[in-house]
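Contributing new records

If you add data, match the layout below exactly. Sequence lines come first and carry their own label; structure lines follow with theirs. Keep one chain per record. Anything else will be rejected by the validation script.
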Amino acid sequence: MMKWMRNRYRGLIMLSLLVLLTPLAGHVQSASDDAANGKVGTPLAPEPIHIQKARLVSDLLSQHHYRTQIIDDKLSQTVFDAYLDALDRDRYYFLAEDIEDLSRYRNRLDSSFRRGELTAAYQIFNRYQKRVKERVSVAKAILNDGLEGFADDDRIELDRSEAKWAKTSEELDELWRKRVQHDALTLRLADQEWDRVKEILTARYERLARAANEHSPEDVFEIYMNAWANTFDPHTAYMSPRLSENFDIHMRLSLEGIGAVLRSEHDMTEVVELVPGGPAAENGRIQPGDRILAVGQGKDGELEDVVGWRLQDVVDLIRGPKESVVRIQVLPSSGDTTPRVVELVRNEVKLEAQAAQSKVLETGTGDDKQRIGVIKLPTFYMDFQAADAGDRNYRSTTRDVRRLIAELEEDGGIDGLVIDLRGNGGGSLREATELTGLFLPGAPVVQVRRSSGDVEILRDSSSEAVYDGPLAVMVDRFSASASEIFAAAIQDHGRGIIVGQQTFGKGTVQNLVDLDHFGLRSRDPAGRLKLTIAKFYRVSGGSTQQRGVVPDITLPSPVSPDEFGEDAVGNALPWGEIRAVSFRRERALDTLLPALRERHESRSAEDKAFQALLDEYAYLRSLQRVDSAPLTEKARRAERDRLQAERLEYINRRREIYGLEKLDSIEHDLLDKMPDTLLETAATIVADLRDLASLPAADIEKTLQARGE
């Protein structure tokens, strides 16, 4: 997978409804002509409040973060590299001579940080600011001179995060010639004429210069503090006063938009997560990792290029009245460099749309036919406002699942149950604990170990199980946090089987620390520090951190677990182990698992739909490893056509197996979805579990021996 996709989860502060604010994207209003023309403004310097806040953040990180880490020269070196990475990850601005000169700070940031001394951070930023303006002048000159001289086999490296710094301005000029050509071809493949391409890119590059010129001292402070915070772990972050205010607004209000968590990735706005039940998730044509290039209002409004915009301005453009139309041009994360325009109808993300839903899948034929219930959980939710107001009918995950199980039992009954947690990024810890109690009443669910070493065991207080039949929990690489707690408890207790992919591995707990509570000498708000203070541990003793939950039966995935997830981030907290909780494990599954796996492997080898999906996912993983793109329009269009034809071939192969009409265009597949092969597989595994549980142990042993097990 491309490294920019792996890196997008570093240091994220997730806001629940729409947006993550970061300071690196540019603002489009109130920009000076001087900035657009590359003139250098007044150098930025820290304000007195920043000195106080730096000392405080240093103390909080060193004394209260879960990871005991000394702020020393070694950490200074890491922070120095992280700060440069935050400013110029793809090596398009700084020269090697800049890095050599600025390296005098490499071993000195630690002592300065503890004192609140921030001169180095601002001097580095001022150098970056100067280089950005120089590069914008070069980019505009390249546009004016014309884009020619590339051969069909010339390519641009899409991820330069590990490239060497350019030694000369001429070397950097050549890199920018490729970048400008790449930007131009991206617009050409979006059906823009060359004159319009030049107009769009000229405005885009001028915005980059204005962005660098408009950073405030607080913006620089935020970038630098996050270089320190993210070095402790990727979920620790400094939140500026503005970010804190927006966080509170999003927690209080139901805002109307597309239902996506966004972040600024240098010059681009990137989709990090889709909110279950939101317009983007329901549409299905926008995926995490897609980058937003332009936004248009209504069905016919002109698309406005937003590359280089400040993230808040992009959000404001996307947001709008309920039931109005917004068109978003995205660059897919799949490796295809062709933009696509997605039309969405703005709406509120309602609790109802995120709530648990159920259905029944039938497996087998004739007398062997079984009804398998499926409950899909997009998130672990609870209507805290209604609960606090005393509403006895408030909505929650556990209440809804309890009701759905009862309805499934009343409406013909079920022979087994699948809890589908694919894509469930977590939510309420309380709900994860109480949901476990529906299947494991009174059992310990998870251990929470704090930085002090104190361990709290969370358990459900239920006295009776709501469902005691065959159970499977379905997970994927996007199942995280609360999902992992529930799945791990079910697995450790032997209550059910886990099927799917290894989960994300987010096993840490964060707390928001309000810096205003520490007596800083300022009338203005100081912001917050999101601080990792604890880790989750399974009742068996192992952490869910990094390793997540490994399924009992693995199903194919379009993403590689080696390149995506918590363990793909270099500074994530490590896996660990503490003393196990005293609990009683059901041993019946231990004897059934070998036979379950054998049945699944034997059946899936003959299942044409399953094998077609295996091939398709292998193809998608190969696309994610593509890190370059052609630099001529002829070669770019040829590659686009080839990739789309290959993708369509895989799609039509599965459609044919299911008896569906073949498609002429890949876009139509997103509007006419095929059966969920993996869910059908999980339901069949649960049916197998029911069958095997009814057989004597001797019969199971004979079956395995006959097959050479």
